[in-house]
Amino acid sequence: MKYFLKVSLLACANVLFLLLIFEAISRYFVNFQFYPSARIERTESLSKFANFRPKYLESLDQKTFNYSSNPDESLKFPENYFKAIRQDSKVYTVPSPNQLARSIVKTQSGEIVYDVTYSIDKNSRRTVTGNNRKNDNFLMLLGGSMVYGEGLDDRDTLPQQLADRLPKTNVYNLGFHGFGVNSILYELQEIKDHPRYQNLYGTNGTAIFYLFDDHLFRFFGSTVLYRRNWGYYQPLFDYSKNNQFIFKGIPKYDLPVRTFFYDLVARSQLTHTIGFNLPFIGHHEIDIYAKALLQIQSILKRRFHVNRFIVVSSYRNELLITQTILQRLQELGVETRDYSTLNIFQILKGNQFIPHDGHPSALSNKFKADLFVADILEQPNPPK
After folding, report:
1. Distance between CA 150 and CA 171 in Å, rounded?
2. Is the entire prediction scored with pTM above 0.70?
3. Strand, helix or coil for residue 40
4. Model pLDDT for residues 72-124, shown as the tens digit of each residue
5. Which of 69, 61, 149 is nearest to 106 (CA)?
6. Where are the domains of the chain?
7. Chosen CATH of 31-221+279-377 out of 3.30.310.50, 2.40.50.140, 3.40.50.1110, 3.30.300.20
8. Alpha helices by DSSP H, the chain
């Protein structure tokens, strides 16, 4: 009898697991929308700007890009680099203000991947030079480490490269390590007078959010993040029936049962091998994600004199959902740019990323800055 019960329970568990897999496949891969060929052709044509290719590749050594396996990150974040602040029942983390932070990453063999210094201003933002209080125009760059400039000195970040090209515009770096839509929504909606959003000078603002597929996993606190050991600190939201985003908590502090279960799934060799992740991402989740960006747009326009908000897709997207997200954003009235089809590997000849690291190189940010100026900031209206 015990043997029969054990076999029955095992069979039920296997059936349930297969159903979950089927559900994930059906929700993730079926019926995703893609832009028409005209949109893709427009994007690809951007690489044909006459001044784009030659000036980036002059005197460059050709490099072969590869990731470092288990890099030595013991000196990546120096002591006292982060500052945790409690406001009522909520905790948020920023770089400690007014600091110069040296960040070093090496391969396991000891080769330097990068050795750079992050300058942090009084508002806990990465420093951008050249801003002037008298400028009426300003530009906010929102996103994760790619906007922040992880692995790069101050002069090579995307916000600084844009500031160099836009002397009459104040440029603010509002990126940060591991950030996505959920972290930005948390800062704007849940934290009163967040320091990173203080002292933004100008009355005619543009905000650009730099979208990367991985941000979708961050928003829903996917188990894939627990495999990287930083899913525990992603703020999570519920989307209520009255179209409001309700803060659920930060898993490490507020959601112990969920954290235990997700950590268990993440550590399973089987789920890792087959690429199984929770929660499942389908059209419903993409719709919620798009509406969160719409909420961010609303807050920025209401509180910070932002007159234009654009969601820009990275040209390094490994999943099949970017264009679906952008399509839904357009339906909601959010301006977008799709660079996911740009053949950046061909344009920059293998110099697009920091060697042994997945973050954009200085060369890549120079290219993006020219691209953004030509395709976004010099065009008052989105392309047809």
Report:
1. 18
2. yes
3. helix
4. 777 888 888 998 888 888 889 899 999 999 999 998 888 899 999 999 999 99
5. 69
6. 31-221+279-377
7. 3.40.50.1110
8. 2-29, 37-45, 53-57, 145-148, 158-165, 181-185, 214-220, 223-226, 251-254, 256-267, 269-274, 283-303, 322-331, 344-347, 362-372
